[in-house]
């Protein structure tokens, strides 16, 4: 079986999905760009579904880049195919060098494709992960992990072509697998296409364009220039306050988890700010990634800058920090010239700011996963040291990434209530506070 091109493959995949996987109306289609975007666009059109992207990058064997020895994805996702690594004899330092290069390209593509848009909310929904084919499965595995982390209730991995044993190879990565063609004599994805030219960034954007709507939850969107790149402001009508996000290591302003939380905060009447704490080059330097003083200084400086924007004038502000970003928020909150009205930490590392915890007066909510044993204990100790009001909230069964169904949604709800509770009345105070 051969497909004319990716659009033809997408139409045939949509037919297979409608016949083999009923009940997909209302699902979200998530494309793996570049090649998966035109395929996914056809599937989304046939199903009448929302379309989004999940940006992943293959980590290719040095000298044989077409052979995947792993993959990296948004929000720090990482997959290593140890069998390929061992067979190719790739030492750890060579793998790391390729990974750094691919993460830089991943960040560029994520920014180019999303263009400041908030990802489509996935919590509690069926998600179709679509690519133009599966070979080793590393990229598909990374994508499935990402959408589960964003709260997908059911994951269906769907491709035009894959090896006959692909479902066994990928194990429980997805809840269901659909392929138009899964031959035993599989060698490469490209051999099943008459036209398998590389998809361009422009073609990815064109595929996504029909699904692009207005800003998140009716928010007005703005950009503010900062040293490491633009800050993205999303401001609902009559906001109660503004929450500035501090991302964790291996992440950035495009973090799907932070964007999902931001979407929930918008519905609570809160403006949000997403920005990069580090430049792409700095993000590759562990010394800077785990430096709470540097990160906290950047967070405080960025907050001062964005608060000068006319859309945020007079609003109280708070910080939402994840992992090392939580340490940055706590560090910055101890500075005499900062005054956050509230802080929320998700899976945070407060131990990195241990010397300053007793100086933090801002009301602080520490949210941790019940299955994240060591981090639970670190946060329990931190709660006892904080000077201001604090609470420790454990999400039962959740791990460090809150990838379990409903876990991230629980974090978002807790954060929304905490900020609304502690933000002082002012602009937007006529909204119901609960």
TrEMBL record:
Q: Where is the Phosphoribosyltransferase domain?
A: 7-164
Pfam families, sorted: Pribosyltran
Protein name as catalogued: Phosphoribosyltransferase domain-containing protein
> Which CDD domains does the UniProt entry name for this protein?
PRTases_typeI
**What Gene3D superfamilies does this protein's entry cite?**
3.40.50.2020, alpha/beta hydrolase, PRTase-like
